[in-house]
Specification:
heterodimer, A: 519 residues, mainly alpha, three-stranded antiparallel β-sheet, 15 helices, elongated, B: 403 residues, alpha+beta, PX Domain, Substrate Binding Domain Of Dnak, Chain:A, Domain 2, 3 domains, four-stranded antiparallel β-sheet, 4 strands, 7% strand, protein transport (chain B), phosphatidylinositol binding (chain B), PX_dom_sf (chain B), SNX5/SNX6/SNX32 (chain B)
Chain lengths: 519, 403
């Protein structure tokens, strides 16, 4: 989502934006210089070729049941998702993927890799204003896939390695298509780095997927059952969504750590991500301290916008949690329905075998077959329920936690500024006292300190204004993203429901003549 | 909780087809039913031109226990040993439904008023469905009796239909229940004994086949019935899940300030409608599949009972033969032995004849009932799937059409 946070195309960007950021400074100037040195691309994200087939992202969730009808459905879907201008179609094909994970794992892997090649970057001649005006900001041509989970090692030291494939025409990357192997802790390490750099200045850094000791242990121990494959698939999909969200963030995309994560074949192991490590414990302590601080900071909110937004996000959080819990129940019951349908199918077959009236016997066997197919259908729908609906909700619940974190950082920033002002006041008092007491050297010292703290107050104010500004932009971007995400997923989910119903119609229509044939 | 069953056949779910043979000389139906605290009162209405009855049209009020009394009277009557006695209707059981309503009433403060109203509506519909089913089961029982040329002439049946007062048939007390239970055990033990008796050969291929067939069929249909019940139950749970989902989407929609507002609200409405459709799918599966399987499970048990009685008669016949031989060798009481053997032979043969007819009727009844219900099931599933598709497509169009 670019929009307001436009990646500076050329030198006439506003470098001042970048300089104000404390840590990010070097980062951005280096990026700007890279851009300046590559004349071929007016934008850092060159727009992809129009040959990007719109269908490639769409059908994946549906590839489980291939049918000619489907093409129409999905052509519609991508078309609609492309919102306004027709020019956008090619770009947007990379959009549907983020929040949506295909229904069946196996079919996912193959098509993903072989999809559109972005190796021919055709540059759209767009002015910067056009980019700024883009309500959608799909300026970034980069596609990430996480696939091929592979178990490495044995016993408790084993881990899963995932292949991270990047396809891009962005010039900041040395190649247009490349892949690396990463393990879960690498992802956590990436997030940790990004969070430490950007969170406290107001950027909403997408959270990494959660750890799961139980899930991972089962995998390590080598249980080859369906629950551990499900766990791995769930994780793989979550990691993919995580990366996709991260690269969609225009600022984060520029980060060298992210680039290193995507590109370099060797990555130093992120040990600090272990739950029980020293860093882990420190994190927990900090979190607790933060919670306490939050309660004691009483900020004079001069800007009603922030208060309003915070309340909004709080409400949203509550509602999403409720919805998520209900959807989880739905998934569970659908799985139960599937199992019960399978059991019934078997007993119907047995009954058919016993039945001595030939036509009825045949009809009962057909019924058994229909029920078996319906069981499959229920299973697939349960997958869709989960991967599309449920996971979207849980992703957003965690994202909103990140948003809340950013608001908290703003409060802390304010606190710092406030404290600086108080200290400045104290220093001025000291100066006044020293003047009265007539101690020249102490006066000088006091004056020095006053200057120091005046600077700090100024800095504090600037920081506060900067973080407020950044948050405003970020929230705007986040909300736009959220609307798009939800709409896309809702449509995809409904289409999966339609698919199920259509299949049901097919099966029952085939069965009806069999039932009528009972003589 | 009170429930009233309206008169008129249309409102009753005819879950099993009964071969009424188009005979209108005796028509029986349950024209009304009232559910009180722990019992159901059925109004049994009879229309008949038979000379037996004092009037051509009359009705009485009967309770479940009286139906059971009637059923047992038939079973215990030697005259009907060669017939399949229509299975007794199951006891009306509102326990589960009542419990759920109570739990809902006790309240979970986290649900909204709309959710509560919907859940209450669901449970009330469930209660009503159970009520309708029990009425249908009791009615089918009587109608089968009325349609059967032999059974309809039973004196107890007339009493049941006509006698205005309470039949003073109390429910079985524990001793009687235990007695019934023991009787069943004795019966199966007896059956096992008879079949293992050496020298007892099944002379008729037809019955040999029927026996093996019914044994297997009965156990498999029982299995199928149980599992169909579970499927129906899962479907119901699924439909109920849509209630909190719809409510949560509604809340989300009302709170949103952006374009998602209409999306969420439309989605909430969609799930509410889908819920109703899923609920109908569940209840149709219940009626057309579960109930039918359950009925034929009971009917096949009744057929098995018939076979047992015939086997018993065959054993008696064999024993009488042996006794006659013994009497002849000893040359004592030959006459009595002869006449006894004659009697047993006659009884066995008449039983066999009527049993054969009954079993063939059973088969044709079963086939036509399955056919009817499976066709209706498929048609209803199609109807609901098409309705769901339409609903989903409309919502999709609406959602995609928005900016």
């Amino acid at each position: 989502m670019a929009a307001e946070r436009e990646p500076p195309p050329l030198g006439d960007a506003k470098p001042t934006d970048f300089e104000e950021l404390e840590d990010g400074e070097d980062l951005f100037t280096s990026t700007v210089s890279t851009l300046e040195s590559s004349p071929s691309s007016p934008e850092p994200a060159s727009l992809p070729a129009e040959d990007v087939s719109t269908n490639s992202n769409g059908p994946r969730p549906a590839e489980v049941v291939l049918d000619d009808d489907r093409e129409d459905l999905f052509a519609e879907a991508t078309e609609e998702v492309s919102l306004d201008s027709p020019e956008r179609e090619p770009i947007l094909s990379s959009e549907p993927s983020p929040a949506v994970t295909p229904v069946t794992p196996t079919t996912l892997i193959a098509p993903r890799i072989e999809s559109k090649s972005m190796s021919a970057p055709v540059i759209f001649d767009r002015s910067r204003e056009e980019i700024e005006e883009e309500a959608n900001g799909d300026v970034f041509d980069i596609e990430i896939g996480v696939s091929d989970p592979e178990k490495v090692g044995d016993g408790m030291n084993a881990y899963m390695a995932y292949r991270v494939t990047t396809k891009t025409s962005l010039s900041m990357f040395s190649k247009s298509e490349f892949s690396v192997k990463r393990r879960f802790s690498d992802f956590l390490g990436l997030h940790s780095k990004l969070a430490s750099k950007y969170l406290h200045v107001g950027y909403i850094v997408p959270p990494a997927p959660e750890k799961s000791i139980v899930g991972m242990t089962k995998v390590k121990v080598g249980k080859e059952d369906s629950s551990s494959t499900e766990f791995v698939e769930k994780r793989r999909a979550a990691l993919e969504r995580y990366l996709q969200r991260t690269v969609k963030h225009p600022t984060l995309l520029q980060d060298p750590d992210l680039r290193q994560f995507l590109e370099s074949s060797e990555l130093p192991r992120a040990v600090n991500t272990q739950a029980l490590s020293g860093a882990g414990i420190l994190r927990m302590v900090n979190k607790a301290a933060d919670a306490v601080n939050k309660m004691t900071i009483k900020m004079n909110e001069s800007d009603a916008w922030f208060e309003e937004k915070q309340q909004q996000f709080e409400n949203l959080d509550q509602q999403l949690r409720k919805l998520h819990a209900s959807v989880e129940a739905l998934v569970c019951h659908r799985k139960e329905l599937s199992a019960n349908t399978a059991a019934f199918a078997k007993s119907a077959a047995m009954l058919g075998n016993s039945e001595d009236h030939t036509a009825l016997s045949r009809a009962l066997s057909q019924l058994a077959e229909v029920e078996e197919k319906i069981d499959q259908l229920h299973q697939e729908q349960a997958f869709a329920d989960f991967y599309m609906f449920s996971e979207l909700l849980s992703d957003y619940i965690r994202l909103i936690a990140a948003v809340k974190g950013v608001f908290d950082h703003r409060m802390k920033c304010w606190q710092k500024w406030e404290d600086a002002q108080i200290t400045l006041l104290k220093k001025r008092e000291i100066e006044a006292k020293m003047m009265v007491a007539n101690k020249p050297d102490k006066i000088q010292q006091a004056k020095n300190e006053i200057r120091e703290w005046e600077a700090k107050v100024q800095q504090g104010e600037r920081d506060f204004e900067q973080i407020s500004k950044t948050i405003r932009k970020e929230v705007g971007r986040f909300e736009k993203e959220r609307v798009k995400d939800f709409k896309t997923v809702i449509i995809k989910y409904l289409e999966s429901l339609v698919q199920t119903q259509q299949q049901l119609i097919k099966y029952w229509e085939a069965f009806l003549p069999e039932a009528k044939a009972i003589a | 909780m009170e429930g009233r069953q309206e008169a008129g056949k249309e409102s009753k779910p005819s879950s099993v087809s009964v071969d009424l043979q188009g005979d209108s000389s005796l028509q029986v139906e349950i024209s009304d039913a009232v559910s009180e605290r722990d019992k159901v009162k059925f109004t049994v209405q009879t229309k008949s031109c038979l000379p037996h009855f004092a009037q051509t049209e009359f009705s009485v009020v009967r309770q479940h226990e009286e139906f059971i009394w009637l059923h047992d009277a038939y079973v215990e009557n030697e005259e009907y040993a060669g017939l399949i006695i229509p299975p007794a209707p199951p006891r009306p059981d509102f326990e589960a439904s009542r419990e759920k309503l109570q739990k809902l009433g006790e309240g979970d403060s986290s649900i909204t008023r709309e959710e509560f109203a919907k859940m209450k509506q669901e449970l009330e519909a469930e209660y009503l469905a159970i009520f309708k089913k029990t009425v249908a089961m009791h009615e089918v029982f009587l109608q089968r009796l009325a349609a059967h040329p032999t059974l309809r002439r039973d004196h107890n049946f007339f009493v049941f239909l006509e006698y205005g007062q309470d039949l003073s048939v109390r429910g079985k007390n524990r001793k009687e229940l235990l007695g019934g239970f023991l009787r069943n055990i004795v019966k199966s033990a007896d059956e096992a004994l008879i079949t293992s008796m050496s020298g007892l050969k099944e002379v008729d291929d037809f019955f040999e086949h029927e026996r093996t067939f019914l044994l297997e069929y009965h156990s498999r249909i029982r299995d199928a019935c149980l599992r169909a019940d579970r499927v129906m139950h899962s479907h119901k749970c699924l439909a109920d899940d849509y209630i909190p989902i719809s409510a949560a989407l509604n809340s989300l929609g009302t709170q949103e300030v952006n374009q998602l507002k209409t999306s969420f609200l439309k989605l909430a409405e969609l799930f509410e409608r889908l819920r109703k459709l899923e609920g109908r799918v569940a209840s149709d599966e219940d009626l057309k599949l579960s109930d039918m399987l359950r009925y034929y499970m009971r009917d096949s048990q009744a057929a098995k009972d018939l076979l047992y009685r015939r086997l018993r008669a065959l054993a008696d016949y064999e024993n009488a033969n042996k006794a006659l031989d013994k009497a002849r060798t000893r040359n004592r009481e030959v006459r009595t032995a002869e006449s006894h053997q004659q009697l047993c032979c006659q009884r066995f043969e008449s039983l066999s004849d009527s049993a054969k007819q009954e079993l063939m009727d059973f088969k044709s009844r079963r086939v036509s009932s399955f056919r009817k219900n499976l066709i209706e099931l498929a048609e209803l599933e199609l109807k609901h799937a098409k309705a769901s598709t339409l609903l989903l497509r409309n919502t999709l169009v609406a959602l995609k059409g928005e900016p």
